[in-house]
Amino acid sequence: MNVYSNKQRWKRLLLAVASVIVVATLWYSNDMARRIREEEQNKVRVWSEAIVKRSELVRYTQQLFKELSGEERQKADRLADAYRLINDPPRGMDLTFVTDYVWSNRTIPVLIYDENDRLLYDLNVPQTTDRDSLKFAMLAHNEPIVFEDVGHTVYWNESVRFSELKEVMQDLINSFISETVINSASVPVVMTDSMRTAVLRYQRVDSATVADPVRLQRLLRDMSNGNEPIAVDLPEAGRHYIYFADSVVLTQLRYYPLVQLVLIAVFLLVAYLIFSSFRRAEQDQVWVGMAKETAHQLGTPLSSLMAWVGLLEEDGVRKDYLSEMNRDILRLNTVVDRFSKIGSKPILKEHNISEAIQSTVNYMRPRVSKHVEMTFETEHPEARTYLSPPLFSWVLENLIRNAVDAMDGKGRIELRVVQTPENIQVTISDSGKGIPKNLRKEVFAPGYTTKSRGWGLGLSLCKRIIEEYHGGKISVESKSTFLITL
Q1: Domain limits of the chain?
Q2: β-sheet bridge partners, residue 484
Q3: What angle do CA 12, 13, 15 make, to 5 degrees?
Q4: pTM, whole model, 2 decimals?
Q5: Are 380 and 354 in contact (CB under 8 A)?
Q6: What is the pLDDT of residues 108-132, one digit of tens each?
Q7: DSSP assignments along 68-86, one per residue
Q8: CATH superfamily of 345-485
């Protein structure tokens, strides 16, 4: 038990150290991820505040634009009124001031055509502008003024400054939307319309997700669960919503420790299996070598004993003495045969298993305490299976001796054979104190023993003989019953 206990203590110590390493690694990684997330959230908070401030600036600029556009519209309307006065002046009105007002116009574009639709004059129109296209645009926005007495037609439109302001305002809105998304850095961002269905801009988000409405709504829901979306009101475009999530780096950092531990665990498991197979192969070689050397060493004195028995028989020693000696010599031959078979694949032949068990029981009865009752029962006396009788008998002897020790030399041992359509089951039960449930798997481990002077190899050898050599299975079926399945 000491060797096994020491191994168990070392296993528990290594498990405790590994647990401390795992816990420390996870704690440090989670703490680092938490600090990075806080720093990232602070950056996102500053970024979102800047978005709100810039949207307010855009709204303020739009308000100024509306006021200025109103003033420019009034100028255009007054210029149109001036042309109308010139076209149809009230009786006795001096048109000098009106004419000066018309010619002092420096902002409102004007095109004047004759009765043949030929351009006579243009005012405040850039040289690169196509006049015909501009005329149709003016016609679409404002009713032209016709001077019937001379056949001239005046086309006019909003002021140049007003048009430029509209372009600047639209550029400002587009720039705001673009920079809002671009300035999000590594954070995934999605900007939607007021209905939260149409995506205007996005960054660091899979395009396939954006194109699929179901996946998009799922993404927006996940983003809103992590961070409250930012509402932004833009001129003429209405309300927009900006969704954002944690960066990809932060998300990967959260799962990195788990992935790392899994990879380390897989590596250690593979390494353990490799080294365990090497160690087991080495142990097998030592085991086989010791067994064969034991068989070899026993061979010489056994031959000598056989010779001495022959001499004693010639000297007329009592035959009952010699018979017992011959039985022990035969038993020693069986032991040598068993040890010689360790390490080599035994030749299994079909045998009557009840006869093999009965033979072992008959051998063990006179060799155990008289206070131990040993019985063997079977409902299938003709059951046959493939066995190596010397090795199978060795297993039964080990189990019977362990049962006798567990009962302190007093009690009852029962052996039973049951045949099913799938297999043959052999049970060995005793009336001893039995094996606790938590130790039923450990009893087969090399080195495990409850005896102060034991080596803990008997049950380990039984397991090897049954499972590796016979292809069966041995287990502790109940508190004091072993089950062999062949």
Answers
A1: 2-161, 176-247, 345-485
A2: 426, 474
A3: 65
A4: 0.44
A5: yes
A6: 788 878 888 888 778 777 787 888 8
A7: HHHHHHHHHHHHHHHHHHH
A8: Histidine kinase-like ATPase, C-terminal domain (3.30.565.10)
